[in-house]
DNA sequence: AAGTTCTGTTTATGGCGTACACACGGTGTA
DNA sequence: TACACCGTGTGTACGCCATAAACAGAACTT
């Protein structure tokens, strides 16, 4: 079952889709390992996730894990997809506009990261996405496909919002993790940095903001950032909508149009795009 | 010189400000170690930065470093401040509006991270900021203090933009690092993931975007995100500006005003805020 | 019944940060 | 001048990590 070695991403694909899934038997299994990994990371963060500790938690030796999982990185991939399947995703109804739907997706991602903070800590490129992660991505993409944005813009919007959620979650995770390890709260620690604060005078803006209490009653970084981000995206969508008939490109996907439709008010690159525009208009979505 | 042990952040403060700086002598020195660390991280990423390798590069034993630096984490703090001093910061003139100035800061941060990709990889809370980092922060804050935003909003805006830059830089770093280590380019790797792509049919939005070439000609994530972010911030600033006379709070900092200035069109919480508003109007900045 | 495969264990390698005891040279004091 | 001290660099050692390789027993196949 583990013939493909750690080097082989195709093997991870098989594991993610649970191919060759044996019915539950006593002893180790992929699911048990993944679940133990999730529990451990929930409790101790991604840095605390070691093969030793996962094995210990299950009552087996370290190396026994390698019979079911190629390695630590792949275990993390599996854990990500595991927890991505926990809730369906957004909580916005289909009738809502793109903004409500995209915001719901962002909040769903935020919730997920509050349940499993280590998600935001996952680093490194080339993670093989599993079915649950793909489903979430698909859903997020679908929130903004009917907005007049080009395909590349749709992808960019979803990536931007996704990385924003990750970035803000990471902020909290790192604070919490440091607090857990050191036993000293964030405020206590900064409160003790007198020798540092001494040096901050002479920076006029910083001290003025400090004196005005800007650091005492901060904005919620997630709420604040999400609002700004959605506003920025809304502006783009409005621009695309207002200039929808003037551009030379396809009204739907922005791709160049072979024969610029002279006289005709709207230009499509393909029949499928024309169809989509029609459906969009008749569905009456924003 | 290293009496304060690794536990003591005040010691790091002293090191960051180079207190007790001996004149250059042969042998090891804090500066030499920090510079070697920067070179190493530039070449091999933050994961490749080990005390052993830094020492090796300098021709000393590993433990010799600990005579000058409390530990690896603190070395990283020192490295961050070192490179933060490389360029003054933004390249926008003082006469420009907030948007040009904030954008220049963001681009300066982006440039810095392109020169030193490991900056984006630095993780963990409670990093003691050094003089150069504080100077950059001060400058970034000053770009949006004269916009009518509340102090908390100013701080939130700067944090948001800062984390955005980090997040986008991290995206590139991780791709480049994986490519460097594996010897396989991003495109080649994804190109070989046939068994994964097979499973993507059935996700209609995803496949449509794929067929429309959205993944082939992607938006530049940094440029795209920066534009959206600044647009969103601009909207907030406009809102604050338009409602500047209606709110009960201070026009400048938003803090509550003791005696709501009845009849008077503008309310200030303090003389300094009134003064700032005056200067702002006469300076004619946006 | 014999062979093969699947599963878990044992042992070992090489990397990491860093605690601790030590060695050596220069400097200040008796 | 002698001696103690301190700043600086070294050598050894510990405990953690991922994982390669060889092995042992059970289960299933033929």
Automatic annotation (TrEMBL), chains A, B:
Annotated PROSITE patterns: HTH_TETR_2
Listed Gene3D superfamilies: Homeodomain-like, Tetracycline Repressor, domain 2
InterPro entries: Homeodomain-like_sf, HTH-type_TetR-like_transc_reg, HTH_TetR, Repressor_TetR_C, Tet_transcr_reg_TetR, Tet_transcr_reg_TetR-rel_C_sf
Gene Ontology MF term list: DNA-binding transcription factor activity; transcription cis-regulatory region binding
SUPFAM superfamilies in the cross-refs: Homeodomain-like, Tetracyclin repressor-like, C-terminal domain
Keywords: DNA-binding, Repressor, Transcription, Transcription regulation
GO-annotated biological processes: negative regulation of DNA-templated transcription; response to antibiotic
Name of the molecule in the record: TetR family transcriptional regulator
Organism of derivation: Nonomuraea phyllanthi
């Amino acid at each position: 079952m583990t013939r493909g070695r750690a080097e082989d991403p195709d093997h991870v694909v098989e594991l993610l889709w649970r191919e060759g899934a044996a019915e539950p038997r006593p002893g180790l299994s992929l699911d048990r390992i993944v679940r133990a990994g999730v529990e451990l990371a929930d409790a101790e963060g991604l840095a605390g996730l070691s093969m030793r500790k996962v094995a210990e938690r299950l009552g087996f030796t370290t190396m026994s894990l390698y019979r079911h999982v190629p390695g630590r990185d792949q275990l993390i991939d599996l854990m990500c997809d595991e927890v991505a399947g926990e809730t369906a995703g957004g909580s916005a109804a289909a009738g809502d506009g793109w903004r409500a739907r995209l915001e719901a997706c962002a909040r769903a991602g935020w919730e997920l990261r509050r349940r499993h903070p280590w998600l935001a800590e996952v680093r490194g490129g080339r993670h093989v996405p599993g079915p649950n992660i793909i489903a979430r991505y698909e859903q997020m993409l679908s929130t903004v496909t009917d907005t007049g944005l080009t395909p590349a813009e749709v992808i960019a919007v979803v990536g931007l919002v996704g990385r924003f959620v990750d970035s803000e979650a990471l902020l909290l995770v790192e604070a919490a993790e440091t607090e857990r390890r050191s036993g000293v709260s964030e405020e206590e620690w900064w409160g003790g940095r007198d020798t540092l604060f001494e040096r901050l005078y002479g920076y006029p803006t910083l001290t003025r903001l400090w004196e005005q209490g800007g650091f005492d009653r901060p904005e919620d970084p997630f709420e604040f950032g999400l609002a700004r981000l959605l506003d920025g995206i809304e502006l783009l969508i409005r621009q695309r909508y207002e200039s929808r008939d003037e551009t030379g490109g396809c009204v739907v996907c922005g791709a160049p149009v072979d024969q610029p439709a002279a006289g005709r008010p709207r230009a499509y690159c393909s029949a499928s795009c024309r169809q989509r525009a029609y459906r969009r208009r008749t569905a009456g979505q924003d």
